[in-house]
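Troubleshooting: if your tokenizer reports a length mismatch, compare your output against this known-good record of 224 residues.
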Amino acid sequence: FFSLLSWSSKSTSKITSLALAWLGAVVEGKLIVGLYHRVVVEMNLDLEQSAPLRRRGPRPEGNDDAMPMIPPPPPGLPPRHPLQLMKRTAIMGGTLYAMHDINLFHNIIHSPEIKHEWFKIGLASSIAIMAIKAYLELYQGKKNKKKVEYENFRAATHASIVLILIAWISFHKSLSPLYGGFKTMLIMIGFGFGVLLQAALMIPVWGQNLLSFVILTFFLQQYK
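Known-good structure output:
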């Protein structure tokens, strides 16, 4: 009876860990796809063209001439404002310090509790995502002058989402034996929001691809 109970407990733990990994992958995929849409597509949208329509109030009944205007909302800080840069730098710095505090980088390189086979799968998926991103932004966007959006690159978008799911699950399976399922999910979400998202909002597209190549090359030299 006790052996059956122990087996049931281990199976439940594995199922719960896998369910948390899938949930985290969906959240991470939505964050990155939303970021991709915001940075690449919405930066090219001129909001001022639609401002008069957005500020136009409802037409009163029986009076076609009276069109009350809704005052525009106060303008926010531009993306390159020093306060915005300071805020994102503080978020990135705090996230990286927290990861350093738990010896994340050292454990990935040296800890025997890390499942390195799974980590290599996640690393390969991340490289594939970076390659797709660079191809769309630099070759199709810059050279061929195509608008990088879902309607023009559906297959690449779907492939990126699948690769994000694979990378999330692989990294979760790799780190969870050492940090546990919940703490691993916090690490993944913290890295996605606190590092990747903030860097993408701060650094221009060409700088993102260059910096990603340099960091990944350095990491591959260390991770053997």
